[in-house]
Amino acid sequence: MLLDDLARQGARSGISGYLPDYVPALAKANPQEFAAAVQAVDGRSWDRSPPGRRVVLMSVMKPLLLFYALALLGPEVVSGLVGCQPSAKAYNDLDQLLEDAGHPRNPMLNSGALALAGALPGTTARDRVRRFQAWLYRETGCLMPVNETVLASVQSLPNGRNRALVQTLVDSGRVAEPEIALEIYNRLCCLGITMPELAALGCWFANPPSQWAELVQQTLAAIAVGGLYQDSETWMAHVGWPTKSGVSGVVWSIQPGQGSIACYSPLLNPQGHSILGLDFVEGAIRWF
Known about the structure:
Distance between the termini: 13 Å
Shape: globular
Order of helices and strands: HHEEEHHHHHHHHEHHHEEEH
Radius of gyration: 17 Å
CATH topology of the largest domain: Beta-lactamase
Number of strands: 7
CATH architecture of the largest domain: 3-Layer(aba) Sandwich
Strand content: 5-15%
């Protein structure tokens, strides 16, 4: 079977890549670990992952944050906070944000996600993230807990680049409470999920209830524009599935009307994408 063969190839692969040492918990990941799940809108599914194995989303949370912000704040408010333009720069680039007068090019960049995080309703960062978790569970059936161990690891080494980004957003009037925005961002990055759960969630996005169809379309358009940062245009031209990656090694791919692919493999390429994750997605789309 195609997917079984792809999974075996991934598990046996001797590729070289890197683990993100700026998050100690992620730097301890088993570089040989591989997990994947696929779900189609017609009900077919496939899974090769350890039961109950949760992996933190990291930047794969950004489409979910965007969807939530669109639903709660509305597209007009969101467009005032962040654009939907491609970027040829890295996900945490500061120079581009400064050149653009503090208006992030798209919500898949760290700056765009920080701007949206700072706009979420609630009191404390913990409260605002809990509201997001409850809303997502109510609308999609997906419940993701925060991995407090990974969160503590993220917070153990202050991220100077994200702090510079959020200060630029403060200066441009897009963030009012920088510390809360940073904590919300970090908490959302540390949401944990299994690969079957992520594939099921992606399948919901591939065939959403009618009341959410327009906002899902906008979310998927943003993934297509910036989900793989500077590699997004080439990926969409050659593969065609809107795909988001995270430095935890998670890759999440969605195709409207067809389904979703979720994969975890922690070794990253220089752009911060899972090497085997992207390879698996590119091969797995033939299953549909």
